[in-house]
Design goal:
Number of helices: 10
Structural class: alpha/beta
Helix content: 25-40%
Distance between the termini: 17 Å
Number of strands: 17
Strand content: 25-35%
Order of helices and strands: EHEEEHEHEHEEEEHHEEEEHHEEEHH
Largest sheet: 8 strands, mixed
Radius of gyration: 21 Å
CATH architecture of the largest domain: Alpha-Beta Complex
CATH topology of the largest domain: Polyamine Oxidase, Chain A, domain 2
Number of domains: 2
């Protein structure tokens, strides 16, 4: 039997699991996907890596500061320039000031893999329901596996946690969890025979474009450079297509738009990905949620505090403090 079952292998789940393991607890880490890192997501297309989730890394507080120093020492990240603009003029983009961020040449998922290097991850485990038993929880997964654990940490989006915990929370608390919202996004990955874009930045954040929130020169992260581009849409655009059965028409619309904007040739290939829970919009405003039950059940994630990677790590660490001295 596990001491703690951690559900979710984003930054919050990994941080909670690492901290629990340091306390000598027997940990099981589970995720419904086949990867690791949540939005620290990297995909391979034609043997080329593309970051289709979080495109870059920056220091947001003490936790990301400490981790950044380790990542630099391990040569997992390298300098990356990010610019912001409220103009949609390509000419104006040529003179933007830049901020110093970091990118991961081997893909952003390398950050998550580094953090989880001493953990065993059970992939393709989609949690279906949790049932309290005598002195332990039963976790039933959609692959027909059942796991027993003395405690559970749910490090998943609040809206995914609600149906799992709805029988264990008050209506008021359930309403608070339901009130947590996310901005969605669509990521479009493009590959070209040749791509010649020269800007002072490698990632552009747009505040007033009708479709695009970010334009990322993703291929510039790689060695040798890849002829690739990643686009991320803003919430207003994405919400119109959030439940579309087929994203390919949206991909073609975005391809036409970016080709016209940047005077690009037709891409030789493309892939598209929908993020329903891209960025917390309305947060829970607490570091984590401990449910006062006979059996420990704790919720954490970036939706608790917001503030990106910093908030996710802080939330995971806070969830693990329940086990201090136990």
């Amino acid at each position: 039997m596990l001491d703690v079952a951690v559900i979710g292998v984003g930054l919050a789940g990994i941080s909670a699991a690492v901290e629990c393991q340091k306390k000598g607890l027997k940990i099981g880490l589970f995720d419904k996907s086949r990867g690791v890192g949540g939005r620290l997501a990297t995909r391979r297309v034609n043997d080329i890596r593309l970051d289709h989730g979080l495109p870059s890394w920056n220091i947001q507080g003490p936790h990301t500061q400490a981790l950044t120093e380790k990542l630099l020492a391990e040569q997992i990240i390298s300098p990356w320039k990010v610019a912001h603009s409220d103009s949609n003029s390509v000419d104006a983009w040529q003179t933007l000031e830049t901020e110093n961020f970091y990118a991961a040449p081997n893909g952003m998922t390398a950050i998550a893999k580094y953090l989880a290097r001493d953990l065993t991850i059970n992939r393709s485990f989609h949690l279906d329901k949790i049932i309290p038993a005598e002195n332990h929880w039963q976790l039933h997964f959609k692959n027909n596996e059942t796991v027993e654990a003395k405690a559970i940490i749910l490090a998943i989006p609040a809206s995914q946690a609600v149906p799992l915990v709805e029988n264990f929370v008050t209506r008021e608390l359930g309403d608070r969890l339901q009130s947590v919202t996310y901005e969605p996004a669509i990521s479009l990955m493009l590959g070209f025979e040749e791509l010649n874009l020269n800007f002072p930045w490698q990632e552009l954040c747009l505040s007033d474009h009708p479709s695009f929130k970010k334009i990322i020169l993703d291929g510039k992260k790689r060695s040798p450079q890849a002829q690739t581009l990643v686009l991320q849409t803003n919430a207003t655009f994405t919400e119109k297509y959030l439940d579309a059965d087929n994203l390919q028409p949206i991909a073609q619309t975005l391809i036409r738009e970016i080709r016209q904007l940047l005077n690009l040739s037709q891409p030789s290939w493309h892939q598209i990905h929908r993020w329903r829970y891209a960025l917390p919009d309305k947060t829970f405003s607490e570091s984590h949620l401990y449910l006062p039950l006979e059996l420990p059940l704790i919720l954490c994630g970036d939706w608790c505090l917001g503030n990106g990677a910093e908030g996710a790590i802080a939330s995971g660490l806070a969830a693990a403090t329940y086990f201090d001295g136990r």
